[in-house]
Structure formats: structure tokens, C-alpha cells
Amino acid sequence: MARAFTRCSLADAVARLRPGMKVLLPPACGEPVALVGEICRQAARLAELTLLGGMHLGDYPWARAEHAPLRFATWHMSGHLDDARRRGRVEFVPLRYFDLTRELVRGGVWAPDCVLVHCAPPDARGYLSLGVSVGVTLPAARRAPLVIAQVNPAMPRTLGNAFLHRSQIDAWVEVDAPLTEYPPPVLGGVERAIGHHVAALVPDGATVQVGVGAIPQAVLEALVDHRELALHSLLVDSSVTLVERGVVTNALKRIHRGRMDIAEAMGTRRLFDFLHDNPRVNMESSAFVHDPETIARLDRFVAINSALAVDLSGQVTAESLGPRQVAGIGGQFDFVLGASRSRGGAAILALPSTGREGQVSRIVTHLAPGTAVTSPRFLVDWVVTEYGAASLRGKGERGRAEALLAVAHPRFQGELERALTSS
After folding, report:
1. Backbone CA torsion sign across 363, 364, 366, 367
2. Cβ atoms of residues 166 and 287 within 8 Å
3. In this structure, which topology does domain 189-422 adopt according to CATH?
């Protein structure tokens, strides 16, 4: 049944929400800031309304004490949420991205009552592109009872599986405002060294997946002399440089040859302009992009992800410090699993050798009690620090530990070796 596509004010659009509803937000640069602001203004009447979301770039205004009637369920924790979590207003949901596409649709545990979308204006046939954020938002919106759109001329019109028709949207507001931006992180010597070591492991012709942050940024910058690469899942500003320099051609992919399959884009106006009406960028939902079976069909798929700590068996956490949840599972497990099934694929986990300004080793004998394992030891092929790359594939316990000791910070190598020999 076609929906009304009614033009509203912000106040009238949010007036459609009711206490106790579950409302999904697009993440990062796709956050509909104006609609979120209006939800916060109406928080007093929206008791126990639960916002659902992942990584956000602002300060999570809905989690402030003055908006205490609102709740937040998230699959990506942030320091901005610590106070609200202590007040019992935030719940962490330990789901990987591929599973989110099942649990955020009708019949799923977290099926939303409403999905907010942030779209480019409709084209002549009435189709609105979700622009920079398609991953989990698009499949949820296509099956949600209520869909409210923030329509923004500043949103790039991305192509591929990125569209809702006006007949799939109940209400919309027009807001002409810049997107929330994600500027490139500032790199130091440690990040650049890690980027160099990782890039040396990437073969020409590979399909490369990177996350966000300083180390992924350094990896992308270090790939400038490679040839015939493809990019998968995420685009940032440095991705544009690789395309412009002819490094990324996507020409050797077995599926969607010549195009990048992307679920999210995080960057600045430079990236947004690149995305607009660009046929080389194929936006897709996370049901496709994060599917390990999709990834397995891409030869030489190299998954490059960050970590908080790695133990001497090769277990990786990218999300918790002991039992304290500080980030999320994200797509890391999806990608390392897919890479294990890709012909010529590899899973690379990269991290600085130390934390807390050099006071602790991030390569540890054992993960601390309560730590969540994001990537299991049997799926990790390489661990990279500023001191080099440790190859783990196929090695026994002793060989893995020795390889990891070699890339630990020299100040902690003796301590780690003594712990290993005494165990």
C-alpha cells in the first residue's frame, strides 16, 4: 500500500512518534540532525522511546540527562554514552553488521516502529537516494511501519541499491544543511609505520576493506603505489585519492566489475561531491556488503581492521577493555570470516604496540577477564604493529606467540616471554 509522502514541519513529523516506540537512526555522516534535535525537544512527551543506532559523530544529544525520558540501544559504544549508561538509559547490543540486517526488520528482535532516513531530493520518477548511509537503514526502512525522511539538497545522490520511492515514505521535512563531516584523522609516526607494513601485505589486484580511524587512514595513504585495487564496504576522503590516481579501478572483481560495493561513506564535502551520481560507486545494504558469502566470491579480499589488544594466541578484541564495552563488533567478524573463504584472501589486524601513552603493551599474554573476543584466533592471518607484521596462519601455539613477540614493543618483550615460558 502506497504511503502518503506528506510534507511536514519538523514538529509535526516528530509528533507522529509515540512513547515506547523504537526508532532507528542512520549513523555517522547520514545522521538526520534536524529530526534528532526535534526528538530531543519533544523528549518530555516521548517517555521510554528507544532510539536505535550505531556509530555517531556528534555528542549524542539524546543521551544527555535533560533528555532522560529517551533511551538508546546501540551496537557501537562511545565515551559520550558513559553517563547515560550509568543512569540505565543505554543498552549495548552485541550484534555484527550482517546480523543487524535481520534483527532490524519486521520480525526481528529490534524491529523498529519507525525508521528515520536522510535523503537527497526525489528524482523525476519519485526515487530518493539515501546518500552516504545505506547499510542497515535501507532494509529496515523498506519494512518499517513508519518512515520519516529528512530531505536535504546537500545529500549526494548515490547510485545502486540506495533508493526509497516516495510511495515508501510516510512524511518528510526539507532541511537544507551541511552533512555532519568526518575529517581525515591526523597521523603520527606510529600510524604511518603501521600503514607501511600493512600495505606491503596487500597484493596488486586485491579488494580491500578498511575501517575508520588513524590506522585505516594510514593504510590507504600507503597504498598509492599499488595497482588495480578495489574498495569494499566503506569510503573515506583518502579513497577518492586512490581512485583519482588510478590505483583503485575495480577492474579485476568477479562480481560488480568496475564498481565499488559500499554500505557507508564517511568524510567531508570532497567525498560527498565524488559520490554524487557516480556510477563507479554501487551503494548496497549490509545484507550484501557484509555477507561472508559475498566476500568469499571476491578473490584476494584483504580485510584490514583495527584492534585494542591481541593475546599471544592471536585472539583479538576491538571492542572492550576487560568487561567495559568501549566500541562495537561492527563488521570486523563479517570481513575476517569472508576473507578466510576468499581465494588469496587475508585478514589483517593492526594496532599500535602500546597504549596509555606507552605505559602498557597491547600485545598481551592473555586477554583480561571479561574481554570480548571480536575476532577468534583461527581467523587472524596477520597482526601488524609499528614493529612489523606477524604471520599467524597455520602456526602452532609456540610459533604464533613467537611471531607476536617479535612485533611487540621491545620494552615489553622480555616480560611477555617470561610469562609465556612460565605458563
Report:
1. negative
2. no
3. Glutaconate Coenzyme A-transferase (3.40.1080)
Q: Which CATH architecture has domain 6-174?
A: 3-Layer(aba) Sandwich (3.40)
Report in angstroms the alpha-carbon separations of 299 from 11, 257, 264, 418.
50, 12, 22, 41
Comma-separated ranges of CATH 3.40.1080.20 domains in the chain: 189-422
Per residue in 262-286, pLDDT (tens digit) is 999 999 999 999 999 999 999 999 9
Quickly state the pLDDT bin for 423 (edges 50, 70, 90).
low
Task: Say which residue the cell 604496540 belongs to.
Answer: 353
CA distance 56 to 234: 15
CA-based angle 208:213:217, to the nearest 5?
50
C-alpha torsion angle, residues 24, 29, 32, 34 (rounded to 10): 140
* CB-side neighbour CA atoms (13 Å) of 364: 20
Q: Which amino acid is at 307?
A: A
**3-class secondary structure, 205:** coil
pLDDT digits (tens, 9 = 90+) for 38-55: 999 999 999 999 999 999
Distance CA 307, CA 357 (A): 16
3-state secondary structure of 219: helix
Distance, CA of 252 to CA of 262 (rounded, Å): 17
Among candidate residues 108, 131, 119, 132, the one with its CA nearest the CA of residue 168: 119
CA 409-411-412 angle, to 5 degrees, is 70
Domain with CATH 3.40.1080.10 in the chain: 6-174
> How far apart are alpha carbons 90 and 98 in whole angstroms?
22
